[in-house]
Structure formats: C-alpha cells, structure tokens
Design brief:
With about 210 residues, the chain is α/β, with parallel strands linked by helices. The chain is built from 7 helices and 10 strands. Helix 1 (about 10-25) links the parallel strand 1 (about 1-5) and strand 2 (about 30-35). The radius of gyration is 17 Å and the shape is globular.
Length: about 210
C-alpha cells in the first residue's frame, strides 16, 4: 500500500490511522513518502501512490478528494507570548519573527496569496521543509509559525503552544484533503484504507464522501 502525505499529517496518520488498520490487516505492507502539497499531488496524479493527504491543495483534474474538512490555518505562539483574544489578520503579525515552510507547501501557498492581496510580506527568520522544525522553533521561544491545529495537536492540548485564529477568510476556510486518482478504481485494500482514514484521522473526523 503506497501513500504520500504532507509532513503535518504524519503523526496522526501513523497513530490514528495505520496502527489500527495494520493490526486488522497483518498481511499488508506500507510504503509511506512525504513532502509538500505539490509533491503529494504529483505522486497521486502520476500513480506513484494510491492515496495522498494534502493541506488545501488546488483543484487538479486528475484527483478526487474522497474526504475533506475545514482546518483553519492558525498562528502558533509560545505559551508565554502575549496574544490578543480575538482573531487577527495576518498583516498584524508582520513584525513577529516567524518560521515558514518552503514554497511548494500548501501553507506557504496560502500565506503568499494573502500577502499578495494585502500588499505586505512576512520576513521569516527560519525557512524549512519540516513541520517538526516549525514546532521546535516556537517551542524554543524564537518566534511564531503558521500551522493547522492537527499538526500541533498535542502541543496545543498540553499548553506548550498557544493558537491564535487568523481573521483572513482564505486562511480561516483552508481544508485538509484525502486524495486518490480520478478515473481509476482503487484496489480493494486501498479502498478499505481510504474509508478507515476518513473515519479515524482527526483532521477529517468521519467526513468520508464529501
């Protein structure tokens, strides 16, 4: 079984998805790759993998979203950093030191669109291809970053990070997608896994069939 996912999906995919599915189907093997949104779309569209998990991908004629759910992009702050109580526009955070993913990731695409529409620029102190590096940047007190809540769920639940909602509609309406290739029936095992992931992964919470 071949899958490709964005970095932020990895912990949930393994802990909430593949662990239970593998226990129920001990004869199956998995090949898991990861990368930015552009890489996930390419891997699914080219038939390199059966299933993909991507954050806010653009429409693609060769792909179907079997499940999707709204997952707003949030500003993540160190727990001790003062933060406003209400959602703020991205433009209000331009003076904060921040860490950003490289271009090619869905999050960076979203931020770039809001920057272009508003005529401002974020100036990252750190650029990386790793969601883990973004988390560690904030946990170290170096500044802020931007992730959907599921990518830092444990840190948020345990109070190590603080989530600040963003007021920009494009960021507030972002979504997570579970993808497969259009026009080609999935192998039986892949179809079972797709249904399992749509039911059990926290970003989707049972939204199969959207």
């Amino acid at each position: 079984m071949r899958l490709c996912c964005g970095d932020g999906f990895l912990p949930g995919l393994l802990e909430e998805g593949l662990a239970g599915f593998a226990a129920a189907h001990p004869g199956l093997r998995f090949v898991l790759s990861h990368g930015g949104t552009d890489r996930v779309l390419e891997a699914v569209a080219e038939g390199e993998v059966e299933l993909g998990l991507a954050y806010n991908p653009p429409a693609h004629p060769s792909l179907v979203s079997a499940a999707r759910a709204r997952q707003p992009l949030l500003a993540l702050l160190p727990a001790g950093m003062a933060a406003p109580a209400a959602p703020v526009p991205l433009s209000a955070l331009t003076e904060k030191p921040c860490a950003l993913l490289f271009p090619g990731h869905g999050i960076r695409h979203l931020l770039s669109r809001v920057e272009a529409d508003g005529g401002f620029r974020l100036t990252p102190r750190l650029e990386t291809g790793s969601v883990e590096a973004l988390r560690r940047f904030v946990l170290a007190g170096m500044g802020i970053t931007f992730l959907p809540g599921f990518a830092a769920g444990r840190d948020l639940a345990e109070g190590r990070l603080h989530a600040l909602p963003l007021a920009d509609p494009l960021l507030a309406e972002a979504s997570a997608h579970l993808l497969h290739r259009a026009g080609r029936p999935l192998p039986a095992a892949a179809a079972l896994l797709l249904a399992h992931l749509a039911r059990h992964l926290s970003p989707f919470a049972g939204t199969a069939g959207f």
